[in-house]
Amino acid sequence: MKYDIEYYENLLRIQSNTAEKINKIRWNFILEVLSPNNILDYGSGCGFFRAYRPSGIEVDSYDIGPYPQTGIRIKLYDVVCFWDVFEHINDFKVIEPILALSSAVALSIPIKPDNKHFADWKHFKIGEHLHFWNEDTLQAFFLKYGFNKVKNSGYPECPPREDILSIILTK
Q: How many domains does the chain have?
């Protein structure tokens, strides 16, 4: 998958109708558990999460793509978010320093239901999704960095989305 300007322009055209709804769900999900002052949106894409932020919360944005972003500006964040990012990361060593920047992580990620075969699953995208997780492997990954799942994880983005787990983990 090539994350170039065409990809992001397409994302804006296709996704902007549901972006506000999804990002309100994400903000409510975070604010149920945490009271952040600052957040890093890692893999921010075209910046929907930052655009729909509540007043009083600073959001820095970082992405490999060409859209404007703030970059990583401080040494410690209250939360680092990986919205629809983790399945795209080629080498997780790249995010090890990012995980050290926060005591909390929030993410959304496709999780294949047990009753679906990979070949029939809408998120089975070879070349775009580089990793496929279940709740146990995801929690095991974060446990090695000192993060534990917070009780209220689940599927708050579904609908409008399908088979997307949202989870908050803290140190």
A: 1
